[in-house]
Amino acid sequence: MQSNENMVLNINFYPPLLSNSFNNMQEKLIKSINRKLEVIVALLLELRLQEPEVHTLRERIETLNDLGLKPREIADILGRSNIYVNKELSKLRKKNKI
Questions:
Q1: CB neighbours (10 Å) of residue 27?
Q2: What is the three-class DSSP state of 48?
Q3: Long-range pairs of 66-74 with CB within 8 A, sequence gap ≥ 24
Q4: Rounded CA separation 59/88 (Å)
């Protein structure tokens, strides 16, 4: 009969294998959480944008910017290019809205 000491997996013997597996699991979990958060933000944005006073794409960009999102994040949420969002933000700054 084997002792419990012999049955324990020696993690030091397989560090690259366990490390890579753990990192892959972490990466998948982070991607999954990130995707769910993107959906939540999009749904909240839709609720906010159903209010009569916020309806144009520029106003959506302004709202997300006011919430502290970066241009890249705004572009991802709205399905637009980063260049487009930056141009709209620039126009808003020129009008002294931001």
A1: 10
A2: helix
A3: 66/98
A4: 10
Provide the 3-class DSSP secondary structure of residue 35: helix
Q: Which residue's structure tokens are 């749904």?
A: 43
Q: What are the pLDDT digits (tens) for 28-38?
A: 899 899 888 88
pLDDT digit string, tens, across residues 48-85 = 767 666 578 898 898 888 888 899 989 988 889 999 99
pLDDT band at 96 (very low <50, low <70, confident <90, very high): confident
Q: Which of 63, 60, 97 is nearest to 78 (CA)?
A: 60
Q: How far apart are CA 8 and CA 96, in angstroms?
A: 65
Instruction: Give the mean model confidence (pLDDT) for residues 3-27.
Output: 62
C-alpha atoms less than 13 angstroms from C-alpha of 19 in its C-beta half-sphere: 5
Count each helix (H run) and each strand (E run) in the chain, helices first.
5, 0
